[in-house]
């Protein structure tokens, strides 16, 4: 494959999920230095050397190539050995919003109309965040997928790190002109859940997640944006991440840059 060098700013990574092709699938979303919003996967984040584990909003050098197994225009594969985090973080919201501004859309309907599989939307109203019961353990097929050996030698050289099954499916209920009830895959949400899961129990952990991602994040002090993407197989939309700059960050209107 003809990998090309790029510098990207990672803005989202999703919680790992079992994959029939790879041990587990982590999807990352990044802004390229030349001004594109792309999906880079699979990224074996939990198995990478510590010096390759990039941070959110960190400029990172790497080599990528258009995915040959995913026809979505924004999907790329990465050469794992090429990943070099720069240590340079975009820490301030005005700079972050300036970088993502070209990828703001008015609604999921507009993304569909433009044939996009990635974008950022600003919901007009957020009604609720709910969680529904899911399996507490991986199904047999998923468990086998998590322990296969198909993601290059990078995984064959390391001990398996057990992946905790999240026993809930979390959703945002919101409107962007139409009402939606969409599953959330943001790693940060699941990391918060896992922080309290073992010591507080799953119900308490889920309530802590809801309080944080609904009451603290989606409050009157913040502008809330959803980073959304489609599933490869089913083409349904997922919320991959949440951005919540404080209100008052200088922004152009959506019409100025669509």
Describe it.
The structure is a single chain. With 258 residues, the chain is α+β, with helices and mostly antiparallel strands. The protein folds into two domains: 4-92, OB fold (Dihydrolipoamide Acetyltransferase, E2P) (Beta Barrel); 94-256. The protein has six helices and 15 strands. The chain has helices at 93-100, 108-113, 140-146, 152-156, 187-200, 202-216, and strands at residues 4-13, 17-18, 24-25, 28-32, 37-40, 58-66, 75-78, 84-89, 104-105, 118-121, 125-133, 168-175, 179-183, 225-230, 237-243. The protein has a five-stranded mixed β-barrel. Strands 9-10-14-15 form a four-stranded mixed β-sheet. Strands 11-12-13 form a three-stranded antiparallel β-sheet, covered by helices on one side. A hairpin with a 6-residue loop joins strand 14 and strand 15. The model is unreliable at 140-155 and 252-258 (pLDDT under 50).
Provide a short characterization of the protein structure.
With 258 residues, this protein is α+β, with helices and mostly antiparallel strands.
List the helices and strands and how they pair.
Blueprint: E1 4-13, E2 17-18, E3 24-25, E4 28-32, E5 37-40, E6 58-66, E7 75-78, E8 84-89, H1 93-100, E9 104-105, H2 108-113, E10 118-121, E11 125-133, H3 140-146, H4 152-156, E12 168-175, E13 179-183, H5 187-200, H6 202-216, E14 225-230, E15 237-243
Parallel strand pairs: 5-7, 9-10
Antiparallel strand pairs: 1-4, 1-6, 2-3, 4-5, 6-7, 6-8, 10-14, 11-12, 12-13, 14-15
Helix pairs in contact: 5-6
């Amino acid at each position: 494959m003809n990998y090309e060098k790029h510098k990207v700013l990672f803005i989202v990574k999703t919680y790992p999920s079992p994959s029939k092709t790879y041990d587990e699938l982590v999807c990352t979303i990044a802004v390229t230095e030349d001004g594109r919003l792309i999906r880079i996967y699979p990224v074996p984040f939990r198995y990478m050397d510590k010096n390759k584990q990039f941070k959110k909003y960190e400029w990172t050098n790497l080599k990528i190539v258009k995915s040959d197994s995913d026809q979505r225009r924004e999907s790329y594969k990465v050469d794992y050995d090429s990943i070099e985090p720069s240590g340079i973080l975009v820490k301030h919201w005005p700079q972050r919003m300036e970088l993502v501004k070209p990828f703001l859309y008015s609604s999921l309907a507009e993304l569909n109309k433009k044939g996009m599989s990635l974008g950022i939307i600003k919901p007009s109203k957020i009604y609720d965040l709910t969680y529904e019961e899911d399996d507490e353990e991986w199904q047999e097929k998923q468990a086998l997928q998590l322990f296969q050996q198909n993601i290059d030698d990078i995984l064959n050289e390391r001990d398996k790190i057990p992946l905790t099954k999240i026993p809930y499916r979390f959703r945002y209920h919101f409107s962007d002109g139409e009402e939606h009830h969409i599953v959330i895959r943001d790693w940060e949400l699941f990391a918060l859940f896992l922080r309290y899961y073992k010591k507080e129990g799953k119900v308490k952990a889920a309530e802590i997640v809801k309080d944080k991602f609904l009451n603290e994040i989606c409050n009157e002090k913040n502008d809330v944006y959803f980073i959304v993407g489609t599933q490869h197989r089913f083409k349904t939309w997922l919320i991959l991440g949440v951005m919540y700059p404080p209100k008052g960050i200088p922004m152009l209107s959506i019409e100025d840059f669509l």
